[in-house]
Amino acid sequence: MMIQILIIDDERLARNELKKLLKEFPELEVAEAANFQEGVQLINDTRPQLIFLDIQLDGKKTGFDLLAEIEFTPKVIFCTAFDDYAIKAFEHNALDYVLKPIDPKRLEEAVKKFIVQRHAEEESSKKNLLTEDDQVFVKDGEKCWFVTLSDVRLFESAGNYAKVYFGDNKPLILKSLNALEERLDEKTFFRANRKHIINLRWVKNIEPFFNGGLMVSLKGGEEIEVSRRQAVKFKDMMSL
C-alpha cells in the first residue's frame, strides 16, 4: 500500500531536492505545498500519513503555526536550515529533525524510522480493532453506559473529545476522532468528513450533494455530508 507524503516548504528548489531524494523510496506517494495555507488545506483534505515541514513559512508564519491550525495531525519530520528549533520541534511530537542541506543518509534514517513505527502501529491497531459486536464503556460526568457498537450510529468531533450518538444519548468522551478511527472497523464505521464517523448499518438514504460530495441520512434523523474525497471511497465500498 502506498504511503501518502506531503512536503511543505515555500522554497521550490528545496521541495524539488527533497522529492528527488525521496524517489529512493518507491512506497512513498509524494505531494507538495508551496505555502502555509496550501499546506493546511492539503493536510485537512488528503490526510497524509507523514509531512516534511519547514520551520519558516510565508514570512511570519511557521511550521509550528501550521500544526496549531490543522485538524488532522500526521507524523512530522521537520526539514530546516535552523538547528535551534529542535527542542521545540520534539515538544510538538516531531518524529525527526533533519537539517538542510539534507544529507541522503540522514534522510534515509528518518524515513526508515517512520516506516518501522508505522508498521508497528498498524499491527497494534489490528490487534485492538473494535467491531460492531464489541461492547464499550462510556462515561460522561456521573452517567455511565455499556454500549454495543452496533447501536452507535455516529461519532462527532468536538476538539479533543468526541460525541457518541446512541439512542437518545449523546455523551462526550475524551477521545479524538482520529484515535477512534484507528480503533474502529472501517467495514462498519466510515470517516465521512473531518468531523464525523458514521455507522454504515445506520444509513437510511444517500443523495448527491454540492461539489461532488454526498448527503447521508441516518436512521436516527441526522444528516451527514460525505466530503468529495471521501465520497469516492464511499462509493467504492458500497458498490458491487
Gist?
It is built from 7 helices and 17 strands. It has helices spanning 12-22, 36-46, 63-69, 86-91, 104-127, 177-183, 228-238, and strands at residues 3-8, 28-33, 50-53, 56-57, 61-62, 75-80, 96-99, 135-140, 143-148, 154-158, 161-165, 172-173, 189-191, 196-199, 203-208, 214-218, 223-226. The longest helix has 24 residues, at 104-127.
**Total domains, how many?**
2
Number of strands: 17
Tell me the strand order in the biggest sheet: 2-1-3-6-7
Under the CATH scheme, which architecture of the largest domain would be assigned? 3-Layer(aba) Sandwich
CATH evolutionary superfamily of the largest domain: Response regulator
Shape: elongated
How much strand?
Answer: 25-35%
Enter the CATH topology name of the largest domain: Rossmann fold
> What is the ordering of alpha helices and beta strands?
EHEHEEEHEHEHEEEEEHEEEEEH
Mean pLDDT: 90
Distance from N terminus to C terminus (CA atoms, Å) equals 22 Å
Radius of gyration: 20 Å
Question: Helix count, per DSSP?
Answer: 7
DSSP helix fraction: 25-40%
Largest sheet: 5 strands, parallel
Describe this structure in words.
There is one protein chain. The protein has 240 residues and is an alpha/beta fold. The protein folds into two domains: 3-127, Response regulator (Rossmann fold), CATH 3.40.50.2300; 135-238, OB fold (Dihydrolipoamide Acetyltransferase, E2P) (Beta Barrel). It is built from seven helices and 17 strands. The protein has helices spanning 12-22, 36-46, 63-69, 86-91, 104-127, 177-183, 228-238, and strands at residues 3-8, 28-33, 50-53, 56-57, 61-62, 75-80, 96-99, 135-140, 143-148, 154-158, 161-165, 172-173, 189-191, 196-199, 203-208, 214-218, 223-226. The strands form five sheets. The chain has a five-stranded parallel beta sheet. Strands 12-11-10-14-13 form a five-stranded antiparallel beta sheet, with no helix packed on it. The protein starts with a strand and ends with a helix. The mean pLDDT is 90.
